[in-house]
Amino acid sequence: MNLLEKTLDLSYWKRLKIAFQYVMPQKYLTQFAGWFAKQKWGSVTHFAIKMFAKKYDINMDEAAKENFSDYASFNEFFIRKLKDDARKIDENPTALCQPADGKISQCGHIFDETMLQAKGHSFSLRDLLAGDEELTETFKNGEFATTYLSPRDYHRVHMPCDATLRKMIYVPGDLFSVNPFLNEHIPNLLARNERVICVFDTEFGKMVQILVGATITASISTVWAGIINPPRLTHVKSWDYDGEQAIKLTKGQEMGAFQLGSTVINLFQQDRVKLAENLDVDSVTRVGEVLAFKK
Asked: For the chain, percent helix, then strand, then coil, each to nearest 5?
Protein backbone atom coordinates (compact mmCIF):
# COMPACT_ATOMS: atom_id res chain seq x y z
CA MET A 1 0.00 0.00 0.00
CA ASN A 2 1.56 3.31 -1.07
CA LEU A 3 1.35 6.57 0.87
CA LEU A 4 -1.67 7.89 -1.06
CA GLU A 5 -3.58 4.63 -0.56
CA LYS A 6 -2.72 4.66 3.15
CA THR A 7 -3.98 8.22 3.47
CA LEU A 8 -7.25 7.51 1.64
CA ASP A 9 -7.78 4.46 3.83
CA LEU A 10 -7.83 6.66 6.95
CA SER A 11 -10.92 8.05 8.63
CA TYR A 12 -12.15 11.53 7.72
CA TRP A 13 -10.83 13.02 10.99
CA LYS A 14 -7.38 11.52 10.57
CA ARG A 15 -7.16 12.83 7.02
CA LEU A 16 -8.25 16.24 8.32
CA LYS A 17 -5.50 16.07 10.94
CA ILE A 18 -2.89 15.48 8.24
CA ALA A 19 -4.30 18.24 6.01
CA PHE A 20 -4.26 20.71 8.92
CA GLN A 21 -0.48 20.25 9.23
CA TYR A 22 -0.06 21.71 5.75
CA VAL A 23 -2.23 24.79 6.27
CA MET A 24 -1.70 25.75 9.89
CA PRO A 25 0.66 28.69 10.59
CA GLN A 26 3.53 26.55 11.90
CA LYS A 27 5.97 29.41 12.44
CA TYR A 28 3.51 31.69 14.23
CA LEU A 29 2.22 28.92 16.49
CA THR A 30 5.80 28.05 17.38
CA GLN A 31 6.68 31.71 18.01
CA PHE A 32 3.65 32.03 20.27
CA ALA A 33 4.65 28.85 22.13
CA GLY A 34 8.13 30.31 22.60
CA TRP A 35 6.72 33.56 23.97
CA PHE A 36 4.31 31.74 26.28
CA ALA A 37 7.02 29.36 27.56
CA LYS A 38 9.16 32.32 28.66
CA GLN A 39 6.48 33.95 30.79
CA LYS A 40 6.85 33.94 34.56
CA TRP A 41 3.34 34.21 35.89
CA GLY A 42 3.88 32.73 39.33
CA SER A 43 1.02 30.52 40.54
CA VAL A 44 -0.61 30.58 37.09
CA THR A 45 2.56 29.14 35.53
CA HIS A 46 2.90 26.57 38.31
CA PHE A 47 -0.71 25.44 37.85
CA ALA A 48 -0.26 25.12 34.09
CA ILE A 49 2.91 23.07 34.58
CA LYS A 50 1.08 20.83 37.06
CA MET A 51 -1.76 20.23 34.57
CA PHE A 52 0.72 19.51 31.79
CA ALA A 53 2.62 17.05 33.99
CA LYS A 54 -0.62 15.32 34.95
CA LYS A 55 -1.85 15.07 31.35
CA TYR A 56 1.41 13.48 30.17
CA ASP A 57 2.08 11.47 33.33
CA ILE A 58 5.52 12.97 33.88
CA ASN A 59 7.63 11.37 36.58
CA MET A 60 8.78 14.24 38.78
CA ASP A 61 10.47 11.91 41.29
CA GLU A 62 13.51 11.70 39.01
CA ALA A 63 13.71 15.47 38.40
CA ALA A 64 16.44 17.44 40.20
CA LYS A 65 13.66 19.86 41.20
CA GLU A 66 10.59 17.83 42.12
CA ASN A 67 8.20 20.68 42.98
CA PHE A 68 6.29 22.52 40.25
CA SER A 69 6.81 25.75 42.17
CA ASP A 70 10.57 25.39 41.59
CA TYR A 71 10.10 26.30 37.92
CA ALA A 72 9.59 29.97 37.11
CA SER A 73 8.57 29.29 33.49
CA PHE A 74 7.55 26.49 31.15
CA ASN A 75 10.98 26.73 29.52
CA GLU A 76 12.66 25.84 32.80
CA PHE A 77 10.30 22.90 33.20
CA PHE A 78 10.69 21.61 29.63
CA ILE A 79 14.47 21.41 29.97
CA ARG A 80 14.46 20.25 33.59
CA LYS A 81 17.55 18.43 34.78
CA LEU A 82 17.36 14.97 36.30
CA LYS A 83 18.92 13.81 39.56
CA ASP A 84 22.54 12.74 39.23
CA ASP A 85 21.69 9.05 39.63
CA ALA A 86 18.54 9.06 37.47
CA ARG A 87 20.32 7.73 34.36
CA LYS A 88 23.20 5.24 34.47
CA ILE A 89 25.67 5.51 31.60
CA ASP A 90 26.79 2.11 30.27
CA GLU A 91 30.53 1.88 30.91
CA ASN A 92 31.36 -0.75 28.27
CA PRO A 93 34.07 0.98 26.14
CA THR A 94 32.82 -0.81 23.01
CA ALA A 95 29.24 0.41 23.47
CA LEU A 96 27.55 3.62 22.34
CA CYS A 97 24.69 4.91 24.48
CA GLN A 98 21.21 6.19 23.78
CA PRO A 99 21.27 9.98 23.39
CA ALA A 100 17.74 10.66 24.62
CA ASP A 101 14.70 9.43 26.50
CA GLY A 102 11.92 8.50 24.10
CA LYS A 103 11.04 5.76 21.64
CA ILE A 104 12.76 4.40 18.57
CA SER A 105 10.85 5.65 15.54
CA GLN A 106 13.02 3.69 13.09
CA CYS A 107 16.50 2.23 13.03
CA GLY A 108 18.62 0.04 10.80
CA HIS A 109 20.68 0.12 7.63
CA ILE A 110 20.96 3.02 5.19
CA PHE A 111 20.53 1.43 1.76
CA ASP A 112 22.83 3.53 -0.40
CA GLU A 113 21.20 6.93 0.34
CA THR A 114 17.77 5.68 1.41
CA MET A 115 16.55 5.75 5.01
CA LEU A 116 13.30 4.37 6.39
CA GLN A 117 11.07 7.05 7.91
CA ALA A 118 8.12 4.84 8.75
CA LYS A 119 6.59 1.61 7.51
CA GLY A 120 5.75 2.08 3.84
CA HIS A 121 7.89 5.09 2.95
CA SER A 122 11.47 6.32 3.05
CA PHE A 123 13.44 9.50 2.64
CA SER A 124 16.80 10.56 1.29
CA LEU A 125 20.01 10.78 3.31
CA ARG A 126 21.12 13.54 0.94
CA ASP A 127 17.97 15.56 1.69
CA LEU A 128 18.39 15.02 5.42
CA LEU A 129 21.95 16.36 5.20
CA ALA A 130 20.83 19.42 3.21
CA GLY A 131 22.57 18.24 0.04
CA ASP A 132 26.03 18.07 1.62
CA GLU A 133 27.91 15.82 -0.83
CA GLU A 134 30.80 14.96 1.50
CA LEU A 135 28.59 14.00 4.42
CA THR A 136 26.25 12.02 2.16
CA GLU A 137 29.16 9.96 0.82
CA THR A 138 30.48 9.47 4.36
CA PHE A 139 27.26 7.90 5.64
CA LYS A 140 26.02 6.01 2.57
CA ASN A 141 25.29 2.37 3.47
CA GLY A 142 25.83 3.13 7.15
CA GLU A 143 23.49 2.66 10.12
CA PHE A 144 20.95 5.02 11.65
CA ALA A 145 18.64 5.36 14.63
CA THR A 146 15.76 7.82 14.96
CA THR A 147 14.52 8.60 18.48
CA TYR A 148 11.22 10.40 19.06
CA LEU A 149 10.86 12.51 22.23
CA SER A 150 7.26 12.96 23.30
CA PRO A 151 6.05 15.89 25.44
CA ARG A 152 6.34 13.69 28.55
CA ASP A 153 10.02 12.88 28.04
CA TYR A 154 13.18 14.40 29.47
CA HIS A 155 14.22 16.99 26.85
CA ARG A 156 17.99 17.12 27.17
CA VAL A 157 20.13 15.23 24.65
CA HIS A 158 23.39 13.48 25.52
CA MET A 159 26.46 12.05 23.81
CA PRO A 160 26.50 8.37 22.79
CA CYS A 161 30.31 8.23 23.15
CA ASP A 162 33.42 10.33 23.58
CA ALA A 163 33.63 12.62 20.56
CA THR A 164 35.19 15.73 19.06
CA LEU A 165 32.82 18.20 17.43
CA ARG A 166 33.99 19.18 13.93
CA LYS A 167 31.02 20.92 12.37
CA MET A 168 27.53 22.19 13.10
CA ILE A 169 24.99 22.96 10.36
CA TYR A 170 21.70 24.80 10.84
CA VAL A 171 19.12 23.87 8.20
CA PRO A 172 15.92 25.95 7.92
CA GLY A 173 12.74 24.09 7.12
CA ASP A 174 9.14 23.31 7.96
CA LEU A 175 7.86 22.78 11.48
CA PHE A 176 5.57 19.79 11.05
CA SER A 177 4.72 17.88 14.19
CA VAL A 178 6.90 14.76 14.44
CA ASN A 179 4.52 12.54 16.43
CA PRO A 180 4.37 8.91 15.25
CA PHE A 181 1.06 9.27 13.38
CA LEU A 182 2.22 12.22 11.27
CA ASN A 183 5.68 10.73 10.81
CA GLU A 184 3.94 7.82 9.15
CA HIS A 185 1.79 9.94 6.85
CA ILE A 186 3.76 13.06 5.87
CA PRO A 187 6.42 12.19 3.26
CA ASN A 188 10.03 13.26 3.88
CA LEU A 189 8.98 14.88 7.16
CA LEU A 190 12.36 14.56 8.90
CA ALA A 191 14.21 15.88 5.85
CA ARG A 192 11.78 18.80 5.52
CA ASN A 193 11.78 20.08 9.09
CA GLU A 194 14.17 22.60 10.58
CA ARG A 195 17.20 20.85 12.10
CA VAL A 196 20.68 21.20 13.57
CA ILE A 197 23.27 18.72 12.24
CA CYS A 198 26.26 18.03 14.50
CA VAL A 199 29.25 16.20 13.00
CA PHE A 200 31.67 14.38 15.32
CA ASP A 201 34.90 12.40 15.12
CA THR A 202 34.81 9.33 17.38
CA GLU A 203 36.69 6.07 17.84
CA PHE A 204 33.70 4.50 16.10
CA GLY A 205 34.28 6.62 12.98
CA LYS A 206 32.41 9.74 11.96
CA MET A 207 29.08 10.22 13.72
CA VAL A 208 26.27 12.66 13.10
CA GLN A 209 23.70 13.63 15.71
CA ILE A 210 20.79 15.64 14.34
CA LEU A 211 18.33 17.63 16.45
CA VAL A 212 15.09 17.98 14.48
CA GLY A 213 12.68 20.83 15.18
CA ALA A 214 8.89 20.58 15.14
CA THR A 215 5.67 22.53 15.74
CA ILE A 216 5.74 24.17 19.18
CA THR A 217 9.41 23.22 19.66
CA ALA A 218 10.29 26.77 20.61
CA SER A 219 14.06 26.32 20.42
CA ILE A 220 16.98 23.97 19.93
CA SER A 221 20.16 24.60 21.89
CA THR A 222 23.63 23.09 22.23
CA VAL A 223 26.00 23.32 25.18
CA TRP A 224 28.74 24.93 23.06
CA ALA A 225 26.67 27.50 21.13
CA GLY A 226 23.62 28.13 23.29
CA ILE A 227 20.24 28.69 21.60
CA ILE A 228 20.52 28.08 17.85
CA ASN A 229 16.96 29.10 17.03
CA PRO A 230 15.29 31.49 17.24
CA PRO A 231 16.12 33.47 15.23
CA ARG A 232 15.03 31.16 12.40
CA LEU A 233 17.28 31.83 9.44
CA THR A 234 16.15 31.41 5.84
CA HIS A 235 19.43 29.86 4.68
CA VAL A 236 21.74 27.02 5.66
CA LYS A 237 24.50 28.15 8.02
CA SER A 238 27.49 26.13 9.18
CA TRP A 239 30.16 26.47 11.86
CA ASP A 240 33.53 24.66 11.79
CA TYR A 241 35.32 23.54 14.93
CA ASP A 242 38.86 22.69 13.86
CA GLY A 243 42.19 23.14 15.60
CA GLU A 244 41.83 25.21 18.75
CA GLN A 245 38.11 25.53 18.05
CA ALA A 246 37.55 21.76 18.37
CA ILE A 247 35.17 20.86 21.18
CA LYS A 248 35.58 17.57 23.05
CA LEU A 249 32.60 15.92 24.71
CA THR A 250 32.48 12.76 26.78
CA LYS A 251 30.16 9.76 26.73
CA GLY A 252 26.91 10.57 28.50
CA GLN A 253 27.61 14.31 28.63
CA GLU A 254 24.76 16.66 27.79
CA MET A 255 25.13 18.15 24.29
CA GLY A 256 21.83 19.92 23.65
CA ALA A 257 18.18 20.40 24.52
CA PHE A 258 14.70 20.88 23.06
CA GLN A 259 12.06 23.15 24.52
CA LEU A 260 9.28 20.58 24.15
CA GLY A 261 9.57 17.25 22.35
CA SER A 262 11.07 16.45 18.99
CA THR A 263 13.41 13.93 17.35
CA VAL A 264 17.09 12.94 17.41
CA ILE A 265 18.69 11.12 14.48
CA ASN A 266 22.07 9.36 14.74
CA LEU A 267 24.09 8.37 11.68
CA PHE A 268 27.08 6.02 11.67
CA GLN A 269 29.50 5.04 8.91
CA GLN A 270 29.36 1.73 7.11
CA ASP A 271 30.80 -1.26 9.01
CA ARG A 272 31.67 0.78 12.11
CA VAL A 273 28.87 -0.12 14.52
CA LYS A 274 26.19 -2.74 15.05
CA LEU A 275 22.92 -1.51 16.51
CA ALA A 276 21.81 -3.25 19.70
CA GLU A 277 19.71 -6.32 18.85
CA ASN A 278 16.89 -5.32 21.20
CA LEU A 279 16.18 -2.10 19.30
CA ASP A 280 13.07 -2.00 17.16
CA VAL A 281 10.21 0.36 16.31
CA ASP A 282 8.65 1.69 19.54
CA SER A 283 11.48 0.43 21.75
CA VAL A 284 11.61 2.68 24.81
CA THR A 285 14.94 4.47 25.14
CA ARG A 286 16.68 5.98 28.14
CA VAL A 287 19.82 8.09 28.18
CA GLY A 288 22.84 5.88 28.90
CA GLU A 289 21.39 2.56 27.79
CA VAL A 290 23.09 0.77 24.91
CA LEU A 291 22.39 2.03 21.41
CA ALA A 292 25.09 0.16 19.47
CA PHE A 293 28.38 -1.71 19.74
CA LYS A 294 31.68 -1.28 17.95
CA LYS A 295 31.84 -3.62 14.99
From this structure: 25, 30, 40
